[in-house]
Amino acid sequence: MKRSRWLLAAAVATVFHILAPAAHSAPQILAALPVESGIPLVCGNGVCAAELSTYCLQRQRPSPGMGTAYAPAAPEHFTLVLTANGNEIRLPADRHMSFIENRGFMSVVAMIELGRLKALGADNAKLVVGQDA
Question: I want to staple 101 with a disulfide (CB 3.0 to 4.6 A). Which of 37, 61, 64, 97 is the partner?
Answer without folding.
Answer: 64
